[in-house]
Design goal:
By secondary structure, the chain is α/β, with parallel strands linked by helices. It folds into 3 domains: 7-67; 71-134, no CATH class; 161-329, 2-Layer Sandwich (Nucleotidyltransferase, domain 5). It is built from 14 helices and 5 strands. The two termini are 48 Å apart.
Length: 330
């Protein structure tokens, strides 16, 4: 495993540090060596302040940018020309065009793309310069073309995972599920997989979705609930993705309790996160799901459901659910 941390891992580390666990305990949860965590905290904390994921990631990015110097970092004359034109309220496109069509003396043959200029403005230039103020939009952060402004998501009737009863946390009953959405290939139009995992028996349900919409997710969840006997779906735990906003329709119609992980803590539903790794054995990241039929996906599901698990005394999830269901009916 690489010693570099993702933003998600830094957010997870920040949350675990707040729980007052020891660094060795946190290392076991994160599957990291405690010395790596210690180095991360020491390198990316500001003074005596507590570790913050956003600041740590920012400090790491700044160091990374220094290691990856761009054209304007290496060419003082070109950088001076670009900055002077920006201060005169020229757009990056105008600067690029001027260099191509009528380069000033001393800059003959030199060029730079407008995307590189935007990158310099927002990522590389010293913050005190605030070069973005000379752009028409005057935005302190760039919104990439084709992207909408991010907005906070409100999930109706959201109940925290911390309100989940101990009988669920301790896997003392049947019918408590975790749900996730699996993306394999970041390509426009590529389908997704909706994944559900029963915590006690480790039973798996997977459904192909044409997109990651809330409506498609709801339909997949309905298929899972209807695929098991009545009473074998008592609760579902989700992350905070927008695809889960219609959970109330499942909750009300089937009388199922729904719970949500803490923000940026999808690892709290670790069972379904682990079963995703089993799915990737059959569906690597470069899989084009457009070519995968529902029948083929169900075959993969049952291969996993028929694999013995050490935690189930080497019984399979299908064997355990059938045994438990029979005992429940009796």
């Amino acid at each position: 495993m690489s010693n570099e941390f993702t933003l998600f891992e830094r957010e997870k580390l920040e949350w675990l540090l707040r729980t007052k666990q020891s660094l060795r305990q946190i290392a076991r949860v994160m599957h990291r060596d405690h010395s790596v965590l210690s180095r991360e905290i020491n390198r990316n904390s500001s003074g005596r302040k507590r570790y913050r994921a956003d600041l740590a990631h920012k400090m790491w990015e700044e160091r990374k940018h220094k290691r990856h110097a761009g054209k304007l970092d290496k060419d003082d004359e070109l950088r001076q020309f670009v900055e002077e034109r920006l201060l005169e309220d020229w757009s990056p496109e105008q600067i690029e065009g001027r260099l191509e069509e009528k380069s000033p003396k001393g800059l003959e043959g030199k060029n730079i793309s407008y995307e590189s200029i935007y990158y310099y403005i927002y990522e590389k230039a010293e913050k005190y310069k605030k070069l973005y103020k000379h752009l028409r939009t005057n935005r302190p952060k760039r919104i990439k073309q084709g992207k909408r402004k991010s907005r906070s998501l409100t999930i109706p009737k959201r109940k925290s995972i911390h309100d989940r009863p101990e009988i669920v946390n301790n896997k003392e009953r049947l019918g408590d599920w975790e749900s996730d959405t699996l993306e394999l290939q970041r390509k426009k139009g590529n389908p997704y997989i909706s994944v559900q995992y029963e915590r006690k028996t480790q039973l798996l349900r997977v459904h192909k979705m044409k997109d990651k919409s809330a409506e498609e997710t709801k339909e997949a969840l309905i298929k899972t609930v209807e695929s098991v006997l009545p009473g074998l779906c008592q609760s579902i735990t989700f992350d905070n993705g927008s695809e889960n906003v219609l959970h109330t329709q499942i909750k009300d119609f089937f009388e199922i309790e729904t719970y949500f992980c803490d923000p940026f803590a999808s690892w709290q539903k670790g069972g379904v996160e682990n079963v995703n790794k089993l799915l990737r054995q059959y569906l690597p990241r470069n899989t084009d799901l457009s070519d995968l039929t529902n029948e083929e996906l169900q075959q993969i599901q049952e291969k996993i459901n028929n694999r013995p698990r050490k935690s189930l005394n080497f019984l399979t999830p299908n064997e355990v659910i059938n045994e438990q269901s029979g005992a429940k009916k009796a």
